[in-house]
Amino acid sequence: MDNEKKFHGEGRREFVKQTSLLAGGLLAMPILSKANFFSGSSDVIKIALIGCGGRGTGAATQALSTKENVQLVAMADAFPDRLKDSYDNIKEALGDKASRVNVPESNKFLGFDAYKQAIALADVVILATPPGFRPIHFEEAIRQGKHVFMEKPVATDPAGIKKVLEAAAVAKTKKLNVVVGLQRRYQNSYRELYKRYKDGIIGDMLSAQVWWNQGALWVKPRKPEYTEMEYQMRNWYYFNWLCGDHIVEQHIHNIDVGNWFMGETPVTASGMGGRAVRTGKEYGEIYDHHYVEYRYRNGVVMNSQCRHWKDAPSKVDEEIVGTKGRIFCDKAQIVDHKGKVLYQFDKSKENNPYQTEHDELFAAIAKGEYKFADAERGAQTTLSAIIGRLATYSGQVIDWNVALNSGLDLHPKTYAFDAQPPVMPDASGNYAYAKPGITKYFT
Questions:
Q1: Are 175 and 30 contacting, i.e. CB atoms less than 8 angstroms apart?
Q2: Which residues of 35-44 are buried (b: 16+ CB within 10 A; e: fewer)?
Q3: Can you say how many angstroms the Cα of residue 62 is from the centroid of all Cα atoms in its chain?
Q4: What confidence tens digit (pLDDT) does each residue in 379-392 have?
Q5: Angstrom distance (rounded) from CA 14 to CA 169
Q6: Which of 29, 102, 338, 367 matches a 20 to 30 Å C-alpha distance to 95?
Q7: Are 242 and 236 in contact, with CB atoms under 8 Å apart?
Q8: Cα separation values, 28 from 22, 23, 78, 369, 371, Å
Q9: Which residue, among 118, 385, 57, 68, has the nearest Cα to 244 in the 3D structure?
């Protein structure tokens, strides 16, 4: 069955059913010998961190905070300062577990190919570089037979999605656990809300609304010694080949909740967006707001909005509307259409989902279980966000399958600090950005 049939129609629905069971740990999987999972005879689970920024540092700390016998044995990054800071911060954060950091200088790798060397030393790989590199890093981790925790999104363009899907299929044949950092799937309140939704508490779904609206983010000033490649990598959030725009890098969490409850991925996306507030050249090429209408095969519409506007109200939430009531995810509450509370999750029982996703992954690996196959679902949600970006950038209606098969590739031909990135500034230092009605995709 090809990828398109997996995403839509009967094959698509069965595909979603199976991956949902896998993600929930409900599908009975074989118990494998530890030879399938560990590189040596010891019961130590060896971890390599690929990408030593803030999220990589956090993910490694969470992996090393699990109950299992784990050690960080290798680290890789493009920049020595980030690797050093990450190493120091992980050790400090672990406190009395700092001995779990066992990374000699010989296992600290730098440069664009450093990931290959680090992956070779580990049983489990944490992929947390800017997301543009995720497809090639995931492909290599699976080629080397490693379990993977990878941050979302899993790509920034359709060509990257294809690469992830191909590697995900190989991961399944090798029975390699893969967890993607869409952590609401691992959060107690969301899991309880989803159970009740599936039990029919709000009836049939009518619509969904999802938001990630917040203030401004960081910018790192350009330094004279930076090449253009280094500048863009230091400011990766503002360049699509590295980040995918904030609808892909950040709002993906909320879009994933919509897809999860819908049990489908969108068929089309249309919308609008632009650069209303964040207009300076230091903000690269991305927009500061997006509004997308996602249409699903079952006829349901999900309205999606995200923005980065300083001093404007913040809202990060999801609302699912059904024939008999609605779910407010942030409140962890379900009400009928008259406002009567049908269910309220006890917030004292909330967990830290960032920690839980590692706890469950490493527990499965330690037991020799094949339990997690998140990569395909991560690719589904990432492509959902990507078609939203393509819709707001162009003003066109973007079809899921057309985008998936478009071959659109944002990446440079060569990864090197003296290489030219795919987007370059003009003489004034400004970057060209998409303009709806002028920018065209898939005509």
A1: yes
A2: eebbbeeeeb
A3: 17
A4: 999 999 999 999 99
A5: 16
A6: 367
A7: yes
A8: 8, 12, 40, 10, 8
A9: 385
pLDDT given for residue 442 in this prediction: 85
Return d(Cα 256, Cα 181) in angstroms, integer.
11
Is the bond leading into 425 cis (omega within 30 degrees of zero)?
A: no
Polymer length of the chain: 443
Cβ burial, residue 222 (10 Å; 0-12/13-18/19+):
middle
Q: What is the pTM of this model?
A: 0.91
Residue given tokens 């159970």 in the structure block: 195
Are the C-beta atoms of 222 and 365 separated by less than 8 Å?
A: no
Token digits for 46? 């060896």
Mark the ranges of the chain whose per-residue pLDDT is less than 50. Answer: 1-36, 38-41
Which pLDDT tens digit goes with each residue over 96-115?
999 999 999 999 999 999 99
Closest listed residue to residue 194, CA positions, set 351, 20, 364: 20
C-alpha separations of 386 from 44, 167, 326 in Å: 38, 19, 27
DSSP 3-state of 74: strand
